[in-house]
TrEMBL record:
SUPFAM superfamilies: HIT-like. It comes from Roseomonas haemaphysalidis. This is HIT family protein. InterPro entries: HIT-like, HIT-like_sf. Residues 12-99 form the HIT domain.
Amino acid sequence: MTSATLSKFGYPSNLVGQTEHWTVLLRPEQPTLGSLVLICREPVTAFGAASPAAFAGLATVVARIEATLGRFVQYEKINYLMLMMLDPDVHFHVIPRYAGSRSQAGVMVEDHGWPAAPALGQAVTPDAAQQAQLVAALRALWDGQSS
């Protein structure tokens, strides 16, 4: 069964990677290039309700995200935002941060908030073809790592 949060962020077409307890999707709106959504696969709406196994698995999935984004966008910092206001399922917005702009697949995104908080309201929305290219590039980097 697919949660409303997974659906909202484009699962399965935006799937970058997945572990036993976590799903990683390309964020449809890109406040910085390579922005992702990390969603708990358990049916929980409070972070503290996630299982000990999900918490343990977070270390592995975060390491893979950071390695993938490091190669993809050469970020300088990374922000994990757990907002959960409109989408109640446990999830993080993963925002790679950098001075200036980055581009790939015909998409150029400036980090308008650098070096302060991310400017989520100034996101770029890639078209379907660009989104597919970004997902494919990120998935190849994700798959190139050992689990």
